Amino acid sequence: MDTITIFTLIISLMALLVTYAVFKSDQQPQIIVFALPHYGKQSFIQLQIKNIGKSIAYNVQISSDQPIPKRAFGIKKLNASKDYFDSGIFKHGVKVFPPNQSYIYDWGQYGGLREALDNNPITMKVTYWYQHPLNLWKTQITDISIIDINELEALP
Question: How many alpha carbons lie under 13 Å from residue 146 in its C-beta half-sphere?
Fold first, then answer.
C-alpha cells in the first residue's frame, strides 16, 4: 500500500468514529429535574422530572443533597410543618422512563419552598442505565440538576 492509500484509510476511520460519537450522543436519554410556575394555579410551583433525550432510560434513581420537600405551601412562609418525599419515584425509582415522559408534582409555593429548603439550592442527581442500539453493554449515566427556588421569586 502506498502512503496516499494509508492516509485515506486513516481519514475515513476518523470520520467514521466522529460520526458514531455524534450519532451516539444524539440518541441517549437525558433526565432533568426543574421547578416551574403552575400556570393553572396562581402562585403554585411545580416540580417536574422529564426525559428530554431521545431514548429510554432504565432503572432510574433520584437522589438529592438534602431532603426533597413536598406540599411546601405558603406565600410568605411555610404554612405547616416540613414534609418530605419518602415514597413514589423518589424512593423506588422508575424501571422504564421513555422519551418526553414527565412526572409533575405540585411542589408548593415560593415562601413555603424557600423555608423548607432553608433558602438553599437543592442539587438533584438522576442516575440511570442506557443501552445504545449499537452497543452490547449498558452504560450508566448520571445527570445533575440544581434548583434554586430564589429564581422564581418574582413569578406570579
Answer: 5
Q: Global pTM? A: 0.81
Domains with residue ranges and CATH for the chain: 3-152 (2.60.40)
For residue 25, the model assigns a pLDDT of: 59
Measuring CA to CA, how many Å separate 11 from each of 6, 16, 26? 9, 9, 23
- All cell numbers assigned to 134: 449499537
Looking at the DSSP assignment, which residues form a beta bridge with residue 47? Answer: 35, 105
What are the pLDDT digits (tens) for 38-86?
Answer: 888 888 999 999 999 999 999 999 999 999 999 999 988 888 888 999 9
3-state secondary structure the chain: CCHHHHHHHHHHHHHHHHHHHHHHHHHCCCEEEEEEECCCCCCEEEEEEEECCCCCEEEEEEEECCCCECCECCCCCCCCCCCECCCCHHHHCEEEECCCCEEEEEEEEHHHHHHHCCCCCEEEEEEEEECCCCCCCCEEEEEEEEECHHHHCCCC
Picking from 20, 100, 8, the residue whose alpha carbon sits closest to that of residue 54 is 100
